[in-house]
């Protein structure tokens, strides 16, 4: 197994861990491999001397006191299961309506970055065509028409800058909103358990 294959397997074993935490574990594994290579082993031999990626991930999580998530709906009695089945027409419809409202909100919020990106691309095209064609219009049609076309190109360039700025501000905001909503939804159905 190569170092890359080992780190890929380690990444799969730590898939629920945040990226900064993963990097700590990756750096530790890389350091262990590099130490063994410096002592004269090949990359494959150095990786073979390490514990398996799953064992390293488990040891890392236990050492860091990381949390594991467990499904937390109280389905521990027959009566609860019967009530869930019988109440499905009510709670299922409410759940579906809530998910559709959430989806509509995401689509509506996602329109803002999409519109900013579309405006950036279209204004770039308008600016390039207007500015590059204005000398030809000045020479062939009239000076006034060429100056107007140049002005339109410069205005499109200003709009391009504003649209690109809007896109660069709204895309991270939208991504953060989606991630926070996903974490909130996960917290509704899963609880944190401190033991591995």
Keywords summarizing the entry:
2 strands; flat; mainly alpha; two-stranded antiparallel sheet; 7 helices; 196 residues; 4% strand; single chain
Shape: flat
The fraction of residues in strands falls at under 5%
- Order of helix and strand elements from N to C terminus: HHHHEHHHE
Main sheet summary: 2 strands, antiparallel
Question: What distance lies between the first and last C-alpha atoms, to the nearest angstrom?
Answer: 27 Å
State the share of residues found in helices, binned by percent.
Answer: over 70%
Instruction: Estimate the mean pLDDT confidence.
Output: 84
- Class derived from helix and strand content: mainly alpha
Unreliable stretches: none
Rg from alpha-carbon coordinates: 28 Å
Overview of the structural elements:
- Helices cover 81% and strands 4% of the residues.
- It is built from 7 helices and 2 strands; from the N terminus they run ααααβαααβ.
- The longest helix is centred in the middle third of the chain and has 53 residues, at 88-140.
- A two-stranded antiparallel ribbon has the order 1-2.
- The chain has helices at 3-13, 19-38, 43-49, 53-64, 78-86, 88-140, 143-189; strands spanning 68-71, 190-193.
- By secondary structure, it is mainly alpha-helical.
Task: Give a concise summary.
The chain is mostly helical and 196 residues long. It has 7 helices and 2 strands, in the order ααααβαααβ.
């Amino acid at each position: 197994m190569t170092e890359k294959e080992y780190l890929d397997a380690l990444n799969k074993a730590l898939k629920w861990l945040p990226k900064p935490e993963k990097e700590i574990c990756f750096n530790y594994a890389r350091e262990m491999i590099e130490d063994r290579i410096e002592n004269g082993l090949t990359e494959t031999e150095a990786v073979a001397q390490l514990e398996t990626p799953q064992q390293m991930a488990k040891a890392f999580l236990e050492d860091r006191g990381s949390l594991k998530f467990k499904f937390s709906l109280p389905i521990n009695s027959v009566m609860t299961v019967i009530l869930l089945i019988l109440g499905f027409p009510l709670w299922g419809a409410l759940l579906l309506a809530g998910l559709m409202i959430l989806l509509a909100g995401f689509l509506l919020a996602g329109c803002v970055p999409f519109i900013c990106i579309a405006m950036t691309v279209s204004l770039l095209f308008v600016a390039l065509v207007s500015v590059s064609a204005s000398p030809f219009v000045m020479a062939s049609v009239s000076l006034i028409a060429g100056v107007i076309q140049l002005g339109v190109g410069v205005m499109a360039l200003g709009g391009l800058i504003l649209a690109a700025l809007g896109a660069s501000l709204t895309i991270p905001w939208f991504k953060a909103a989606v991630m926070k909503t996903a974490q909130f939804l996960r917290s509704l159905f899963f609880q944190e358990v401190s033991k591995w």
